[in-house]
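hey so u asked for the seq, here:
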Amino acid sequence: MSTYYKGKRAATYNRIWKTFSEKTLATTVDYIKVSRLYEAPKAQGKHPRILDVACGTGLLLQKLAQLSPQAELYGIDQSSDMLAQAQKILANEPHIHLTQGSLKSDKMTALPYQPASFDLITCTNAFHYLDNPRAVLQSLATLLSPHGQLVLEDYARRPFPFPWKPFEWLIKGVDPQHNKAYTRTEAQQICEAAGLQILAANDFSAGPLWQCWIIRAEVRKSN
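ran it, structure tokens below
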């Protein structure tokens, strides 16, 4: 991400990916509305705490700030240039805190957050970058509060007759840090292997080229 989402690509990201972002983030927000986790801490006199992982230019954080104006929002991304775009978009949002950090599995322990500190963690359009998604999810699970949930969304690997192999080859040619795209079933299996319990999962379309999945999960409760 640090090599692709920089300079001009970061500055023009929102314009180039406008339609895709609108569709995927609208679906994500709908999933979050169903969970209503952003309202749960109010009963305890606390503000909800939400972390957007791989927050990019801050578009989802902007929507979450509108959905829950009292929430303490946090965003982390590997690209300083994408975070610079997010700072512009979110300049009037004092409850949003942005941090540069890596999502590589061997660096997850260095994230500057306390265990069990977030009511909601989101990660959109970034699962295909993860070097070890199971390990990353296990680390994110430790950041969830006891009632917290995780919402994941990404584009899916498409089956035949769609020419996925040459299509993904083209993606990697443009963005070498692309690792692997997953089907929803595969993503669910990774979540379960990471100790998460699936609460809801769906496929949806973000355009003729992009089929996507979304998953809402929580830490599996021990019996």
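The chain has one domain: 7-219. The chain has a mean pLDDT of 91.
lmk if thats what u needed
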